[in-house]
Amino acid sequence: MRTLFSILLIISISVSCRNASKHSVSQDFENVAGWFDTSKLNKGKGHSGAYFTHTGAGVEYGQTFALKMADITQNPIRRIDMGAWVRISEPTATARLVLSIESKDSTVFWQAIDTESASPKPGEWTRLFFTYDLPEGMLPDYTVKMFLWNRSNKTVDADDFDIHFYEK
Question: Is 113:126 a contact under the CB 8 Å cutoff?
Fold first, then answer.
C-alpha cells in the first residue's frame, strides 16, 4: 500500500510540475536609457552594476514594474514570486517591496514585505523575496505592479528586481 501511495504521489507531482508554466521578468537598470523615465535611477555602486533605483527625501517610490496580466500570459496566474536587493542608509530607514494588482478603478490585491523582515545592515545589499498565491478571479485586464515604497524619508536603494509568474 505504501509503495502504491508513493508511486501515485510521484506521478501527481510530475504531472503538476509538467503542467505549470513560468514566465519571468528581471531588471538590473543597466540598459534602460530611452526605455522609460530614469529620473529615479542613480549611478554608483549598485548590487550588480552601476545603476540602481533610489528612494529617500522627496522620492517616496522607486521605479515601477507595470504590466497587464494578459501581456504576461493568456492563462490565469496562480502565484507570483518577487524579489529585489535593497540597501538602507541607516537603521531607521525603512521601505516595502510592494506587489499591487489593480483594475481600472481600484486595487484588487495588495501585499508587501518590509525591509525590516530581512534585518538589513546599513550600506550592505540585502535580498528581499516573497511568494504570494493569488486569489481566484484575477482578470486579464488587471495590471500587476511591483515597486519599492519608502516609508521613512531616509535613503533606501533597490536593484536587481525579479518577478516570476506561475500559471494555473
Answer: no
Question: ∠ CA 82-134-53 to the nearest 5 degrees?
Answer: 25
- Alpha carbons 33 and 101: distance in angstroms, whole number: 27
Residue 154 sits in a domain of what CATH number? 2.60.120.260
Q: Which domain holds residue 37?
A: 22-167
The position carrying cell 540602481 is 52
- Check: CB of residue 50 under 8 Å from CB of residue 139: no
pTM over 0.70: yes
Q: What pLDDT digit, counting tens, does each position of 21-37 carry?
A: 988 888 888 876 555 66
pLDDT of 154 higher than 80: yes
Contacts of 66 (CB under 8 A, 6+ apart): 143, 144, 145
